[in-house]
Write a structure and sequence with these properties.
The chain is of the alpha/beta class. 57% of the residues lie in helices and 8% in strands. It folds into four domains: 3-79, Glutaredoxin, CATH 3.40.30; 90-230, Glutathione S-transferase Yfyf (Class Pi), Chain A, domain 2, CATH 1.20.1050; 249-323, 3-Layer(aba) Sandwich (Glutaredoxin), CATH 3.40.30; 336-460, Up-down Bundle (Glutathione S-transferase Yfyf (Class Pi), Chain A, domain 2). The longest helix has 32 residues, at 336-367.
Amino acid sequence: MVLTLYKLDASPPVRSVLMVIDAAKITDVQYVNVNVLKGEHLTDEYLKMNPQHSIPMLKDGDFTVWDSHAISVYLLTKYTDDDILYPIDHKKRALIDQRLHFDSGVLFVALRAAVDPVVYQGENFYRNSALLKIKTAYDFADKFLTSKWLVGDEITLADICCVANISSLNEILPIDAELYPNLAQWLENCKEQEFYKKGNKPGLEEFSALLHSRLSSTQRTVSHLQRHYAQSTVSVLLNNLKGIKIMVLKLYKIDASPPARAAMMTIEAANIPNVEFVDIDFFGKEHLKDEYLQKNPQHTVPTLQDDDFYIWDSHAIAVYLLTKYSKNTTLYPSDPKQRAIIDQRLHFDSGILFPSLRGAIGPVIYQGEKAIKPEAFEKIKSGYDFSEKFLTKRWVAGDELTLADIFFMASISSLNEILPIDAATFPKLTAWLNRCKELDYYKKMNEPGTVQLGALVKSKLA
């Protein structure tokens, strides 16, 4: 069976899959170019295959999957015996998964915030807020690079996916080698790889040319704003963890946090024992103290501690717990096709649903704004619309309730507090959420935190 990859070379997610195919030496791949600027991804034929109308999309016989991360994992697990790019070791894989969701939820979100107004809205400059997001992404990525590569001493899928976006961000805000020495050296190391030269470089040049064609000559010569944001880095000194031996799993959490609730529901649904829940005082900035930063330099919640191993990003945590500590085979089945669909939904959560929530309530909670911006409501509606289309069966990824549903529960129930789901417009999504609310672990681990989040937002609004 010949694989078909629908692509646009200028797209960073597409380039990551092209690099995976080359690095893993996967053959018999047919390529179909999709002209997004001409709307070819919005045709009825394309929408039937992919209602999210994104690229890349992979077709394998009568099976289709989108999201570059889900595609890459599917290709590596089904069509190669490679145990380096995506190793079977639970801890290594959990770290790679965390980096992949960092790519979905931070790197690509930062890139989209910079590029979309220029490419699709006719602006001829990069917004200051977008440059700040890029700077923040660089800060985190530089801290991750404690070894030559993002997850240790060998190249993995994490490097391939992240370099597609970071090399693109570098076209917008060049990486300052003095501020980000680890990141700058890592990018140079990536550039030396054959799969980078073949799968990333040509499309990166197209991407750069497209941006330059849309920007004014003034914007291309003005770099003082870029320097300002790059130099505003707040350095955090990290000390090595020494001799920590905790035999009980610890989950550092905030009940109001949707990602934390998703991890908590996973623990409850899979009956994972011996988990100690540790509340973090987010408003007291406990997550910014040295002790927490040593565990998680991205200073997010939740964070899981398993003996001397630390992993963050709720999606990576959940997969790690299920694959290492649970015999449950329905939440995250081993079948490559089923898992690919679930992975796509998880990256949809980290790249679409949760960012739409953060974009709506972040300015209210942290910046004192007294109203949610209209464009934030539009992004939430878009997330609802895609989710409605995904629900062709009883659950988000098919006939069985899976990890995808748990993460959608946490995010969508929170979004519902901000913008109630219209049952007439989204009947499938409404029915699905009502089914979720009947689950014991939803009632125990999600409902209280959802109420807390809704009350917090309402208290901050006028």
